[in-house]
Amino acid sequence: MLLQADSVTRLFGAKAAVDRVTFTLDRPAFLGIIGRSGAGKSTLLRVMNRMTDATSGRILFDGTDVLALTGPARRAWQSQCALIFQQFNLVPRLDVASNVLHGILNRRSTLATMFNIWPEGDILRALSILDRLGIAEQAPKRAEALSGGQQQRVAIARALMQDPKVILADEPIASLDPMNAQIVMDTLRRIHDEDGRTVIANLHTLDTARRYCDRVIGMRDGRVVFDGTPDQLTTGAARDIYGADASFSESATSTSINALPPDTAYAEAMVRA
Questions:
Q1: Ranges in the chain, pLDDT < 70
Q2: Which end of the chain is more exposed for a tag (fewer CB within 10 A), N or C?
């Protein structure tokens, strides 16, 4: 068993933001988590990354309960479990390369960090990752000068700099237009396919979950109410996840991604980015 969540619960007062969530992954996968705002998706990812403590339950990764880790062991897990945010969380006035290098800040001394001193090997690796994501030419620019789609790819590059076993993406395309959203999703899918890394992404579009994910979990009021393949994510199942009636329209979940062949979409988007 690669990853096992066992009755994971997170309470805020009497309110259960995450309520006895249980699921397993036997092997690296691209897992999508969907649900309306407030369903507990973001809290679950933060619990997995240990940014937020669980109230109860276990999360086993390769047999280790990561919720029980403390001190250096907890920080080591956070290096192995990278978290990508909706709003990128870059340092706007720093150049792109430095933002990527910040993925390994916890491995650097305070003095070296203060003076922005990096070994040549780390710099070359950061540039290689940026090149892989199609934005190497942006390396010397300030992060704030980039488009939203480019900034999210910088955030992905920063996560890859950690060389994690698991990548958690919290609404990674919610702030992006459909074309840039497709670029980011194509990027995350390639990382899973080529590197064999587990990717767990909170998503807000059903068509995105069906197109990119191997498996989909639906959450409502902190609980898992759907766990199945993309083919099983019918409109009826979506109504249950979103607590909607027969008037529910999939288009209401968000702007859909233009369904172009991945290579064509990527090429066209690169021209527009």
A1: 108-115, 251-273
A2: N
CA distances from 160 to 48, 54, 263 (A): 18, 26, 22
d(CA 19, CA 210): 25
Decide: helix, strand or coil at residue 56: strand
Count CB-CB contacts under 10 A for residue 136.
16
Q: What are phi and psi of 68, to 5 degrees?
A: -95, -5
Cα–Cα distance measured from residue 32 to residue 92, given in angstroms and rounded to the nearest whole number: 29
Residue-range domain boundaries for the chain: 3-272
Q: Can you identify the CATH homologous superfamily of domain 3-272?
A: P-loop containing nucleotide triphosphate hydrolases (3.40.50.300)
Q: List the one residue out of 86, 265, 85 whose CA is nearest residue 180.
A: 265
Per-residue pLDDT at 268: 42
In this structure, what is the dihedral angle of CA atoms 48, 51, 56, 60, given to the nearest 10 degrees? Answer: 30
Q: What is the pLDDT of residue 243?
A: 86
